[in-house]
Amino acid sequence: MEIDLVIAGAGLFGLTMAERSARELGLRVLVVERRDHIGGNAHSEIEPSTGIEIHTYGTHVFHTSNERVWEYVNRFTAFTPYLHRVFSVFKGRVYSMPINLGTICEYFERVLSPGQARALVAEQAAEFPDPANLEEKAISQVGRPLYEALIRGYTAKQWQTSPRDLPPEIIGRLPVRYTFDDRYFDDTHQGLPVDGYAAWLERMADHPRIEIRLGTDFFDLDAAGAVPVVYTGPLDRYFGYAEGALTWRTLDYEIEVAPTGDFQGTAVMNYADEDVPHTRVHEFRHLHPERGHPDDRTVIMREYSRFAGAGDEPYYPIGTPADRARLQAYRKRARSEPGVFFGGRLGTYKYLDMHTAVASALTMYDNRIRPHFATGRR
Ligand code: FDA
């Protein structure tokens, strides 16, 4: 078919853009995806020996407080009422995460009112009024005892570096709740697609004007340059790394079918001890308690974190001062790249949740793609 718009990348950003452009504007859209599946990092697949749906790139729970996004995604799938809870193991004990009143009472082994807990943490956090590194910044938010138990080892493993040697800018605000609310996400809506991520994402892409070409790298496409492009691949790669490579952390996953009906009693368990090499264990059956699963086998996935080298999957942008300077330079180049719209987590070098990827695609569609085609500039 003739093409009006090329989209590089079939993640949630690219699929939202493809769906809107084909359905609402009637454009003929070619989506090229270098992997052998659509959905980007939200992809899931069935582990054949157990029938359990596994999230190939780590546990994905949909959550949003954005009503427009919630209405939009519900056109393609219904969601289960699953509420995500995360726990962390440290020195043989288990704590609820993110840090909440339950975590604080459990750690200090006493009953504390919200006011008492707040006062205790404030006193312990007063040590570094002007933090010079990640450790000091974390202590200035949660105090030294909780930092040393729940943040230090986990962070050191994530970054393969002592938090004392990491810049303070790479962490944001660590959430601390002075209630017993132990939900991991506090958005209005959360859940999992009832019949799985793959089914949801396939329905988004299912339109006669959308052609998906899997196993195809955008840079191998002859048509590039002839029609407008929405590019959701890595920003630095688009410009041939001319300003230097943006740095990322990557994850390695080790999958095991364990001979038990329940390995850890929850979907995600963090491991905060530094001498345990993995950072998390995912057990996917717990994401769908409403489904029938085998009672003698389960699928677990151990997660290991490290700096991404060339050729590794980029997962989390690092955002050092050098990265930020490079990003500014790439943004400047991107602004003067005719007919190319940069979006998604890789194309903007930003961590995006699924709902923010959808929201930013809808916004780009409204503000840039629809006007671009409406004014006949194709
Ligand atoms: P995404 O990376 O999904 O898609 C981009 C696509 O472009 C990829 O498929 C890639 O292969 C392709 N591509 C790149 N270069 C290309 C080229 N040159 N040619 C062709 N194709 C190319 N979010 C959430 O809401 N809840 C959660 O629980 C989680 N959990 C979670 C866990 C982990 C471990 C990570 C790393 C991330 C999450 N997320 C999440 C975030 C979520 O996975 C993700 O940010 C969004 O799905 C972003 O969608 P994008 O389309 O922007 O990127």
Automatic annotation (TrEMBL):
Highest taxon of the lineage: Bacteria
GO cellular component term of the entry, any: cytosol
Cofactor(s) this protein requires: FAD
Keywords for the protein's UniProt record, in alphabetical order: FAD, Flavoprotein, Isomerase
InterPro entries found in the cross-reference section: UDP-GALP_mutase (IPR004379), UDP-GalPyranose_mutase_C (IPR015899)
Domain UDP-galactopyranose mutase C-terminal: 150-351
Pfam families hit by this protein: GLF, NAD_binding_8
Ranges in a coiled coil: none
Example of a GO MF term: UDP-galactopyranose mutase activity
Similarity comment text for this entry: Belongs to the UDP-galactopyranose/dTDP-fucopyranose mutase family.
NCBIfam families documented for this protein: UDP-GALP_mutase
Protein name (database record): UDP-galactopyranose mutase (Glf)
Organism of this sequence: Nonomuraea cavernae
